[in-house]
């Protein structure tokens, strides 16, 4: 196992990776020479903006964004305002991009959202919508781990110190009555912070005994002979918990509400299309993953991974609050003040116009 200092250096490198700006064509439109979707004749700019910069991860749990890019939903709603895109490897780098105004709106996990909000004193971002639930599993080497109690004493990977899955795994460890130092990852279980791209190779090499990871990494491990020992959804009421939500810079929200509304309209439309056309949506998400990374997922990975994710406009705010409490319990976060972290006003306006029920901020909304 690498030394803790080496792990931290590795995480710092991952967080500092440069952004990859992408352009995509979709919605049945022809492409311009630079690959961007052509804008419909007569379309107008929204709020006078030349572009809206949208960020997301190359994970299936960001399927709303992947499908929205591939099918052109964002560009359709933004009209003559160009939808531009950037992909990220980790939450801290996306929060940094948001704070530096390199992006305006982003798809991101709950822990980075909480950290970004708290570190800025509640001034940097707002959560403006939900995107996905589920898609996180504990996958283990079945030769070494036969049952949940066998996890004790083993080396289990999570994507990053303090990330959403890391917090969830540390909380689960505590629930078993085991002790682990959150910072070093040492204790009754050895928590190995490993980038999702590296985790399958680490598993094959035998340097880890399993991993608590999001899709598609979990299904990649299963394809390598791993066994799903626990689906995190089983630990939550109604088997639902936030894995991806939508954030926006507060100044952008204040200055360009029509642009935010256009992106949220596209998100709602993408989720509706995903849930009505699961096979086509799965293919669209995989197509965009290939465009972003140069490599599509194989069916034995894509199919089970996609099946385990629920796409929803509801941010599942109560579960975000619970996840924050887990981070506090693990010693990774001081008790945060999350009042006002949500502003669901525009989303609920969009949902009402679409005949859908409003969503709730669990008491953490903007007054």
TrEMBL record:
Q: Which UniProt keywords apply?
A: Cell inner membrane, Cell membrane, Membrane, Signal, Transport
- This protein's major location comes to membrane
Q: Where, subcellularly, is it found?
A: Cell inner membrane; Periplasm
The answer, when asked if Zinc-finger is one of the entry's keywords, is no
Q: Where does the signal sequence lie? A: 1-23
Q: Which SUPFAM superfamilies match?
A: Periplasmic binding protein-like II
Q: What's the family?
A: Belongs to the bacterial solute-binding protein SsuA/TauA family.
Report what the protein is called: Aliphatic sulfonate ABC transporter substrate-binding protein
Q: Which organism is it from?
A: Streptomyces cellulosae
């Amino acid at each position: 196992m690498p030394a803790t200092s080496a792990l931290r250096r590795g995480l710092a490198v991952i967080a500092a990776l440069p952004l990859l700006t992408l352009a995509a064509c979709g919605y049945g439109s022809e492409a311009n020479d630079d690959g961007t979707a052509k804008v419909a004749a007569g379309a107008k700019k929204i709020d006078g903006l030349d572009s809206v910069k949208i960020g997301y991860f190359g994970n299936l749990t960001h399927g709303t964004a992947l499908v929205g890019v591939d099918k052109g939903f964002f560009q359709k709603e933004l009209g003559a305002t160009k939808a531009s895109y950037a992909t990220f490897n980790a939450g801290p780098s996306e929060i940094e991009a948001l704070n530096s105004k390199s992006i305006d709106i982003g798809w991101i996990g709950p822990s980075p959202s909480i950290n970004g909000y708290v570190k800025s004193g509640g001034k940097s971002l707002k959560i403006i919508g939900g995107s996905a639930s589920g898609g996180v599993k504990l996958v283990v080497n079945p030769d070494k781990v036969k049952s949940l109690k066998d996890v004790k004493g083993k080396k289990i990977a999570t994507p990053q110190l303090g990330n959403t899955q890391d917090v969830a795994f540390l909380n689960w460890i505590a629930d078993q009555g085991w002790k682990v130092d959150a910072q070093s990852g040492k204790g009754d279980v050895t928590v190995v912070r490993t980038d999702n791209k590296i985790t399958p190779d680490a598993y094959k090499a035998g340097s880890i005994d399993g991993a608590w990871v999001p899709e598609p990494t979990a299904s990649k491990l299963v394809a390598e002979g791993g066994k799903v020992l626990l689906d995190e959804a089983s630990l939550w009421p109604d088997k639902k918990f936030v894995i991806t939500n939508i954030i926006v810079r507060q100044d952008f929200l204040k200055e360009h509400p029509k642009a935010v509304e256009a992106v949220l309209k596209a998100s709602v439309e993408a989720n509706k299309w995903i849930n009505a056309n699961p096979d086509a949506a799965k293919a669209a998400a995989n197509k965009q993953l290939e465009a972003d990374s140069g490599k599509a997922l194989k069916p034995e990975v894509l199919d089970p991974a996609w099946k385990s994710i629920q796409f929803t406009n509801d941010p599942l705010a109560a579960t975000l609050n619970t996840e924050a409490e887990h981070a506090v319990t693990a010693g990774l976060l001081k008790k945060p003040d999350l009042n006002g972290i949500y502003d669901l006003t525009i989303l609920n306006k969009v949902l009402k116009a679409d005949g859908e029920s409003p969503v709730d901020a669990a008491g953490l909304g903007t007054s």
